[in-house]
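Appendix C reproduces, verbatim, an entry submitted by the partner laboratory led by Prof. M.T., so that reviewers can inspect both the input and the predicted structure.
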Amino acid sequence: MGDQAGQELIEDLVDKFDDDWRENHELSDIEHYGHYFLGSVIISHKDGKNFVIDGQQRLTTLTLLLIHLNNLQRERDGRASIDDLIFSDKFGHKSFNLDVDERRACMDALFVGEVPDENGQPESVQNIIRRFADIETGFPYGADSPELISFIYWLIENVHLVEITAYSDEDAYTIFETMNDRGLSLRPTDMLKGYLLANIKDPQARILANDKWKRWMEEFRDLGGEGKEEDADFFKAWLRSQHAETIREGKKGAKPQDYDRIGTEFHRWVRDHHDDLGLEKSADSVAFIDTQMRFYARQYVQVREDGKQERHPFERVYSNWWYGFTMQLPLLLAPLRVTDDGASLTTKIRLMAAYIDIMLARRLWNYRSMAQSTMRYSMFQLMKDTRRKAPDDLAEILTKRLEQETETFAINDVYRLNQMNRWSIHHLLARMIEHIELESGMTARYPEYCVTSGKLAYEVEHIWANKPERFIAEFPQPTDFAEYRNRIGALLLLPKSFNASYGALEYERKLPHYLGQNLLAKSLHPDCYTHNPGFFRFLDASGLPFEPVVDFDKSALEKRQRLYQLLAERVWNPSRLAAILEESDA
């Protein structure tokens, strides 16, 4: 899953820095730049060590950002010293300031500029690797950017955290509860509530509105779990989807606009736009809470629940969460209207989820980033274009966008595994397997295929073992062998235990074992093509060139690569939008 809060934090830092930075400035000018307050972190100090009680996510994001900045400036003159913000060195022993045992090897690799393999790693380590990849692709300054060193100094000197230290877990949690439950640190949600309730003049109406507000906040807390600001995420998604009209321009010194301000201070944005929101009279605030907020909160909770488990007909809402795409929620809310009936709501959510699924799969296939920083403008425009649209109009808009996109499966016929996209390929293979198995009349097992840690984990498996000497006749150069071996057509998704037992074997010795695996792996074996009526029906309907492969040589791999490409075009075909409309009309 994606780290929306972490990505937004980095975007906010860059935006704040950009407000002041000019190319002709000296480093000494940074002292007069604006400051950024990150809030407080609560630490429990015991047994000579510090334990983070509140603020772990912010500290992790900052540590990963600092590592990336350190890697970027490694070869530059006049580099800023930030090593001590990342790790401590005591008597020659280096330890990360944010030190977690199971993450240590991963953090060591990232610090020296290596890309750790997430395959078989614990979930927390996989999340670290993905979050670091998001930072690498989303952070706007490169190693040669003139802003880089200035940004680092600004981050060191003008970005602030308040550390609150307790000397027992009990005291630390008491501080945490006091700050959050007794209003000593009002959050944007609390301030928005205060503004709206203050505008309601009738005492009884104010009490009722307050009770309804509390019930929704409880739902959000139950939805998000401990430490999650699900209520704030709701207000950002709702207000952006329905009311943001402008977004910050992508140039130096540009000021935050609707979209940006809602992400950082939605309570102030509502107050400043009360006329646009129709909050002129006491009754307007009542309706804002009881009608508008109530409707979109219900839909938000529903799609969040749909993202937690696969259930018909919202399978794509669920699978989109596995992309780690953080902008799905406002996109799903954008076309919804308070007056929509249940059938219209279902159709609209399915249409938008299907579009997101197709769009993201195409981007992954073409090595394009899904980071919010690279997609925010186009997704903001999509929110505006689809806002409160009827199902037919929504389908037309989304279909036209897909037709106009240049990133398709057809333009990259050598898509392959690299150091950064193993998780992406894992997800794409899981979806492709799901498609052919469902179309062959089998039970859906997509959630099972997505498991990446533990005894039941699945891994991306090479059909060819990493033994270039076995293929010297077709690949005199090891680099050519490695390039072909990593193509998606030479990959399968198999249980972790399979890879451990058979991964290094020759193809002909592995082939019999493929017969007991998922249908994509099984399709390599000749026996898959006998007494398999469901699979035969799928082959007839799809026309896909599946065939058994007894000798998996270079030619067979190229055929398999083409098969996967055609299969992807079928799984993520824009015609799915029209099919959803037809189902809704039936």
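The chain has a mean pLDDT of 88. Additional entries are available on request from the coordinating office.
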